[in-house]
Amino acid sequence: MMTVKELSKQTGISARTLHYYDEIGLFTPTEKSGAGYRLYDDQALERLQQILFFREFDIPLKEIKAMMDNPALDRNELLQMQRKMLVRKKERMERLIANIDAILKGEDQMDFTVFNNAEIEEMFQTTFEHMPPEMRETAVREFGSEEQWKMHYMEAVSSEKMQKQYAKVVEWYGGRDAFLDVVNHPLSKEVAESYARREQAIRRKLIAKRDCEIHSLEIREIIGEYGFVMKQLTQMQEEKICMLQLAQTYRSGQVQSAVDEEYGEGASEFFARAIEAFYQD
Asked: Does residue 86 lie in a domain region?
């Protein structure tokens, strides 16, 4: 067993920080001595190392706690998550280094290309094949033919502006391969419906806690579950952006009306505020 002083010396984390982590329930001692001193075993040290790793990526403490306390994630899944984050950071650093090297060689333009033409064409084909028939027919009528639509799609996605946007999205997914895998292998109808039912169940639990304070533990636990489900659904490495966008969707006209009709007046705004409170604190 290690004391706070010994753990602080071994990890470089101040005793004050360790005390704070204990206060918020992020990193609690294995046990306390008869005199009330905090004591930590090797398993606790491993948890602290995982916490410190996530902090390297500037992930908020409450999000780290939600991830590490999630019963659906075991030790290996956490390690896999951390590994993917490292790979993503490595790819980003390599891309930045390549761009700087290009500038040093006298090349004026930085290369923002994320996907080549073959990949963009595959993305279009997958989108086309999985699009509802009525939407597909509408798009074909609008562009005159499937081929014209395809040409427009490829030109738009190939533009520097779109490639820059895709670069950010790719980071959320943890890399090009992960993003392309999600795009080119969309969820089956049955799986999508299963997620929809799970999301509906979460909304019912959330509206049942409507009288609770927006920052309360009850609300935060439900939003944490909501974020985990959305992360599984989108296969993103970080669900924060997705969830904040969802909050805005709850405030959009048609969605707001439909949600308020199903869960009661003001429900949509309540859902949006609960999500924002969790992810913007």
From this structure: no
The CATH number that applies at residue 6 is 1.10.1660.10
In the structure encoding, which two tokens stand for residue 238, read together? Answer: 């970080």
Written as one string, the DSSP assignment of 151-218 is HHHHHHHHSHHHHHHHHHHHHHHTSHHHHHHHHHSPPPHHHHHHHHHHHHHHHHHHHHTTTS-TTSHH
Enter the pTM of the model: 0.44
The total number of structural domains in the chain stands at 3
State the Cα torsion 12-13-14-20 to the nearest 10°: -170
Query: For residue range 186-216, what is the model confidence (pLDDT) as tens digits?
Result: 666 676 677 788 888 999 999 999 999 999 9
Best CA proximity match to 59, nearest among 80, 79, 84, 85: 85
143 found inside a domain: yes
Structure token pair of residue 174: 């943890």
205 and 171 within one domain = no
Grouping H, G, I as helix, E, B as strand and the rest as coil, residue 111 is coil
Give the distance, in angstroms, between the CA of residue 171 and the centroid of all CA atoms in the same chain.
Answer: 10
Q: Do 42 and 57 belong together in one domain?
A: yes
